[in-house]
Amino acid sequence: MGDGFLPLTKPLLGDGEWENVRACLETGWLSSAGAFVEQFERQLAEYLGCDYAVAMASGTAALHLALLVAGVQPGDEVLLPALTFIAPANAIRYVGAWPVCIDVEPEHWQIDVQQVQQFLEGECRWAGSELRNRRTGRRVSALLPVHLLGHPCDIDVLRELAAFYRLVVVEDAAESLGASYRGRKVGRPGDVACLSFNGNKIITTGGGGMLVCNNAARAQRAKSLSTQAKSDPHEYIHQEIGYNYRLNNLQAAIGCAQLEQLDAAVAAHRRITTAYNSSLADLPGIRTPHEADWAHSNCWLYSILVDAGRYGCSARELRDRLANRQIQSRPLWQPIHQSPAQQPVQTYGGEVAAAIYAQALSLPTFRGMRDADIERVVRVIRDG
Ligand SMILES: *Cc1c(COP(=O)(O)O)cnc(C)c1O
Q: What is the value of pTM for the model shown?
């Protein structure tokens, strides 16, 4: 026991994936025109209970087009959490808009809705029907909340604020498919939501994403923009600049089979989280994650906080110790407001995000993990 490399994540692929990929190869339909793409879109829309799903080559591509179809303009400002993977900040820059980082709350590490409210109330003013940042004079047009690490953010409060301040909400649910918020599936869109099927997500197509919404015009425009915005199917006439962002049939074939496994994957990730929590919660200096009353997390990536003073070493030293035993672990992402690539960037708070970044460590979390794998990780953390 205990031998071999234990990765942070690993997809679980079965007969369904093999059968679908074989069908794909046998028919010769590899491109985005293949039937699995529409099937994947339909099944995902059904799962979430929404009207439209448009398959994309990546979650980042979905975010980019979501901001475009939501009407975010060059020079606008978009609020996002200070702690997240970089993709949503990059997508904001792709459309020529500016991110405004809002700190996260310390309990569940999600965007702090009180600070969102304080920013909108205290830092912005109305100019006619538009909301403007007092300091920059720029129009504030959208919220881009992220459901971080599988745990939902407090989306109802954000949607209320957005309605009051006339903002559009583009939700990044890339990490949180299969989670729910007050009994509703995370990713079921208000305005627009985005998903990712990157190799490390709870279900995967190797690479891929999805834009979901309940608005026919937005869905149609997103699909058009993802396929070079061809306005005439025969003459190759284009009225606007498009992108090559469509998911291909091979990826969708895998996605259809993976989607059937989603509920089982969530159950497995939740079981792994419970096992880690019960083995680590009493350890001085280690803080284990917990769910909000209204949340049902998909427990995508199990992450702890390591207080170096009380535990005896830092999160990064613990990572090295795990690596010496062939166990992969990883700190969270550098907060957006500290990222060199995003400078200069506005930030409202950010101390909580920075403190989490200094102490957080993500541990192996994947459906194929055995109890012995979990025990192996726990033993290194408990006994050194
Ligand atoms: C993975 C991820 C994305 C982007 O997904 P890709 O498919 O890798 O482009 C966006 N946002 C968050 C929070 C993510 O974790």
A: 0.97
